[in-house]
Design a protein that fits this description.
- It is a single chain.
- With about 90 residues, the protein is an alpha+beta fold.
- It has one domain.
- The chain has 3 helices and 6 strands; from the N terminus they run βββααβββα.
- Strand 5 and strand 6 form a beta hairpin.
- The longest helix has 15 residues.
- The chain is globular.
Length: about 90
C-alpha cells in the first residue's frame, strides 16, 4: 500500500520508518541536527508548497534514508496509514 504525502508524492507504507510533527520534534537539538545533516547530504525532499507541518522518515529497499517534508499534519498521515492497513486486511 502507499501513503500520499502531498502534491504528487506517494511512498510505500512499508518504507515508512516514522511520521514526525515538525513543531514538536524540532524542539530537540538532536532532531534539528539530524535534519540539517540530511539536508546537506541531499536526502530531504520537500513536497510542501505551503507551511510544512510534518517530516516522514523513509528507508528504501537499498536501505537509503530519505526525509520527506509535508504540509499534511502528522495525525492525518497516521490516520491514512491505519486506513490503508484496515482495507488491506479485508
Amino acid at each position: 500500500m502507499y501513503l500520499h504525502l502531498g502534491q504528487d508524492t506517494v511512498v510505500k507504507i512499508s518504507e515508512v520508518v516514522g511520521i514526525f510533527d515538525l513543531e514538536t520534534s524540532t524542539v530537540s537539538k538532536i532532531t534539528r541536527e539530524y535534519l540539517a545533516k540530511a539536508e546537506k547530504q541531499g536526502r530531504v525532499i520537500n513536497v510542501s508548497m505551503e507551511m510544512p507541518k510534518t517530516f516522514v522518515l523513509c528507508k528504501d529497499s537499498r536501505k537509503n534514508t530519505v526525509v520527506y517534508i509535508s504540509q499534511i499534519s502528522s495525525s492525518t498521515l497516521l490516520k491514512r496509514t491505519r486506513y490503508m492497513n484496515d482495507i488491506s486486511n479485508v
